[in-house]
Structures are given as structure tokens and as C-alpha cells.
Amino acid sequence: MVHHHLRYHQLRKGEDDEEAQSLVDECGNAAYYKRTRPKLLSLIFLSLLSCCFVLAPCLFSFPLYSFGEHDSLVAEMDAKTTLCSSISNGTICCDRNAFRADICFMKGDVRTHSSSSSIFLYSSRNTNTFTDHASSISGEGKGSEEEQLQHEKIKPYTRKWETSVMDTIDELNLISKKEDYGTHHHCDVRHDVPAVVFSTGGYTGNIYHEFNDGILPLYITSQHLNRKVVFVILEYHEWWITKYGDVISQLSDYPPIDFSGDNRTHCFPESIVGLRIHDELTVESSLMEGNGSIRDFRNLLEQAYLPRIRSLIQAKEQKELSKMNEEQRPLPPSLEPVLETGKVEQQQVHQLKKPKLVVLSRTGSRAITNEDLMVQMAKEIGFQVKVLRPNKFTELARIYRVLNSSDAMVGVHGAAMTHILFLRPSSVFIQVIPLGTEWPAETYYGEPAKKLGLKYKGYKILPRESSLYNEYAKDDPVLRDPESMVKKGWEFTKKTYLDHQTVTLDLRRFRKHLVSAYEKISRHSHFGS
Questions:
Q1: What are phi and psi of 389, to 5 degrees?
Q2: How far apart are CA 431 and CA 417, in angstroms?
Q3: What band does 26 get if pLDDT is binned at 50, 70 and 90?
């Protein structure tokens, strides 16, 4: 599960200003000491002119734009206007304004160099002609660092505030050099579309983080490219490609590249390094080109999984047909088989008329101990109930098929609630909220559910419905005031409320929520008619 409390930090600022000032000083000093007194006026004029040429690219077109969190410019910008929304050829622009993630843009002759964890931009812009002249006068510019016009570092993962996980993410060097230095860095593979570079490290392996930190930001960052984009992946995992291949194919027409595993030099006309992220499991229309929304993302999932679902249905039909053919035997004339068939058909039609409720079942921590009784109660109310127990090996298309055809879902707070993305708009979602999990339950799933157009209800359990009720005194703050206890920090919250708690539902109390859900569904559909 994700951390409940975010840790803020300051980004370093002003380094570029200091470098520019150092350049001015070098230029001034070199010009002053190089000439003799008789030609002083002429030399002063020439020195000033040279300095103007040096400063011109710095002041007007120097190709490095790196912004800190607190630049006043941000407050004045329109929501859809990003700091790097428009950059010229041969430039690197890094937007470090967002709290959740950094993102950099490279435009021009972009080439990968995986062995040094670098991406190079070879620039034809003659921005440093006079800088080189000043460096040669002062005896500098001989080292490899002087070859670099710009150098940025970035970890392309969307949890930059969380130091513990960011320490595990590979760092990339984004380096701009003059085009002359590219003669020895040959292109092995040329692409005529942009690259989007990101990491599938970090919390990958947890379905919430896979969608929230990866797939959704990837959609936000790349959807405007209309599939004309190549994904370059750090910390590449074959299982991740297999798991999300259907979705990736809706975002890109090209196979993804394993940055570390592919030592060839891939060349691109431009590159986006890092991903943009909006909020928990959501897409903010106001920040998207074309006003895309989380519902548009959900439609993309529909297109991604539909071909696979059709193949699953066809395979099932073929299997049933084969079974019927194998079981066919000569029978004496009798109406009994016909009557029996009629009964089966009647039962199937009756089932189809019932609203479908999916129970996302848990085992271990936060499991519902009386789940069987809850399921039986739901059936008595009038639901057709399907109990779903997905694991990390369950094919997402199969889960999508079940939830997309359902009318309601019940589940206990946890990463599996990410599957609300698979529910149709107007479906009912009841989230069982154990003690000590109200804030993350509402933040990570409750609010996103509303944005998805779901009819959401959070069922906050009472202390007596928690297994902790038998472990602590009735007036213990663990039971009486969980909100104050979670302030002790993530480790305490995880140990006490997430890893060490099960739920025994008060069925009479929970029944009201199921009845309410049934009535909502019946009012807005053909059920019950």
C-alpha cells in the first residue's frame, strides 16, 4: 500500500545563474588583461562587443530551462501551459515544478547511450562560439565537461518526493553537445517518431502503483502523440510487457525498447524523459490537450481488452460445442431431455435478469471472515453474485471481462480496489473501510471512483467489526481514535491496521448498503421489471 504522509523537499535553484555570471567574469577579465595601453579604447570596445555576443545566447536563447518549485512564473501560467510546452530545436528543457515528478524534453538529434546511462543531444546551434574563444584565451576548455553544452540528471519515475523509493530508481544523464562530437556516436537504429522514456522500477509489482505511477501517467504524457511514439523503458521487465501489452499497444504502434538491455544507439527527432502525473488514479481534463478525462482512459482500456475478451468467448464456445458433440448418444424417444433443457434455459434467463454483484475477495490481512454469509445474503436480496479472487498472475483481460459485465462491486480497501477502473460508469462500488484506513481509502479509491462516474459508498466498519476489537481495550485509541494513531507514521499504520486486521461484517448493518445498491441498480435498468 502507499504511504499516508508525503514528505516535501526543496529543489536546488540558481546554479545556472551562477554559471552565467562566472562566464561574464571570465570574459571581462580575459579581455582586460590581453591588450596593451596604446590601443586601450579600441580593445575596450572589442571586449564589450565580444561580451555582448557571449551573453546574447545566455539571455535570449540559451538552451537550458530548469525551474524550481517556487518560481513565481508558475502561478501566472494557464493550467494547460507547461513550462516546456514549446522549445526550439537543439534544446533541453526540464520542468521540475511539479511535486510528484520531473520531466525533461529534448528536441533535435537525440541518441541513446545505455552503457553510460545517458541520452545525448547533438546540437548544430552555434551558441558557444565566443564562449570557446574566451575559454581558449584563459587556457580552459580542454576537458570533457567543456564539450557539454548542457547536462541534466533525472530519475524518470513519478514519486520524486519519496526518497526511499527514488533511491532505487536508475538515474539518466541528459547531455547536449555540439554536433561535431556526434561523428563518433553513430546511429544503429533511426526512428522518425519521438521517444518517451520512463522507469518500471519502484513499486512496480503492486497493481495500484502499476496503474497510478505508470500506466496512467504514460497515457497522460503520450496520448497526444496518437500512437506515433516509441517507449524506452528503464528497469525493463518482460512480465510487465506481457501484463500490459494490450494497453501499451493502444498508446504506441511500435515495440518498446529495453534501455539497459539494448546496447544499440537509437536515434530520435525528440524525446520526453519522465512522465506527467495528475492525481490518484485520475486524469485532470483541465491539464490535458483536448480535455481528455479518466473516462477516456477507461474507453482506451475497453479497446485494449476487447479483442482478447472476444477470443476468450470464442474459445469457451468452441469448448462447450466440442463437449456437447462428445456427449451426444442415441437416446430413446422421450420428452424428459427436452423438459430438462427447458428448465436450464429458464434458469439462465432468470439469472440474466438479476443484477450482477462482484465480490473482490481477500485472504489474510483485511479479509472478510464471514464472506460466505455476506454472499448468501446478497443472493437473497436478488443479486447474481460472482466471487473474484485475482492474484498477480491473473490475466487482466479476464478480470476486465468480469467487472465490465457487472453492476456492482464490493471489496475491502487495498490495492485490488484499483480494479474500479474496469467498472462501467454508473456501476455501484462499495468499499469496506477497516479501522485506520479511512484517509487512504477515500483518497486513493473513493474520490477516483466518483470521477469515474461510479455510485460510490464507503462502508466504515465499527470497532466491533474489526479483529482488533479482541486485542485492545475498548477505550484504547487504536479502536477509539484511529485517526490520531495513524499520525505515528507509516510503519505503525502498516503493522497495526493494514497487516494485522481482519473484518467480520455486521450483516444486519451491511445489508442496508446492499439493499440500497440493489434499488439504485433496479431504478436505472431493466432489472426487477
A1: -125, 75
A2: 8
A3: very low
Asked whether the CA dihedral 502, 506, 507, 509 is positive or negative, the reply is: negative
Query: What sign for the dihedral angle of Cα 79, 80, 81, 82?
Result: positive
Closest by CA position to 496, among listed 507, 514, 483? 483
Is the predicted pLDDT of residue 342 greater than 50, yes or no?
no
pTM higher than 0.90 for the full model? no
Strongest mean pLDDT among 66-75, 309-318, 364-373: 364-373
CB atoms within 10 A of CB 384: 18
CA–CA gap between residue 46 and residue 42 (Å, rounded): 6
Residue 252 reports pLDDT greater than 50: yes
DSSP per residue, 348-364: HHHHHHSPEEEEE---S
Q: By C-alpha distance, which of 220, 218, 229, 194 is closest to 291?
A: 220
**Chain center to CA of 185:** 33
pLDDT tens for 189-199 read 999 999 999 99
- Reply yes or no on whether the pLDDT at 93 is more than 60: yes
CA distances from 182 to 111, 133, 262, 483 (A): 9, 21, 19, 58
Give the start-end residues of each E strand in 274-418: 356-360, 384-388, 408-412
Locate cell 458433440: which residue?
A: 325
Pairing mode, strands 172-178 and 118-123? parallel
C-alpha cell recorded at residue 247: 494497453
Q: What is the pLDDT of residues 462-500, one digit of tens each?
A: 999 999 999 999 999 999 999 999 999 999 999 999 999
* All residues at 6 or more sequence positions from 476 whose CB lies less than 8 Å from its CB, including other chains: none
Query: In which residue are the cell numbers 520531466 written?
Result: 103
Q: What number is the average pLDDT over the span 200-218?
A: 97
Helix (H, G, I), strand (E, B) or coil at 306: helix
Q: Letter for the amino acid at 194?
A: P
The three three-digit cell numbers of residue 55, written as one number: 551573453
Kindly state the cell numbers that stand for 378: 446478497
Alpha carbon 435 to its chain centroid, in Å, reads 28
**How many CB atoms lie under 10 A from the CB of residue 377?**
19
Residue entry with cell 565566443: 130
Chain centroid, CA 110 distance in Å: 25
CB 355, CB 382: distance < 8 Å: yes
Residue 231, strand partner residues: 196
- Using one digit for the tens of pLDDT, what is the confidence trace for 414-469? 999 999 999 999 999 999 999 999 999 999 999 999 999 999 999 999 999 999 99
Q: Which residues pair with 356 in a beta bridge?
A: 384
Task: Report the pLDDT value the prediction gives residue 145, as an integer from 0 to 100.
Answer: 62
What value, to the nearest 5°, has the Cα angle with vertex 108 and ends 105 and 109?
115
Q: What is the DSSP string of 435-500?
A: TT-HHHHIIIIIHHHHHTT-EEEEEEPPGGGBGGGGTS-TT-HHHH-HHHHGGG-HHHHIIIIISS
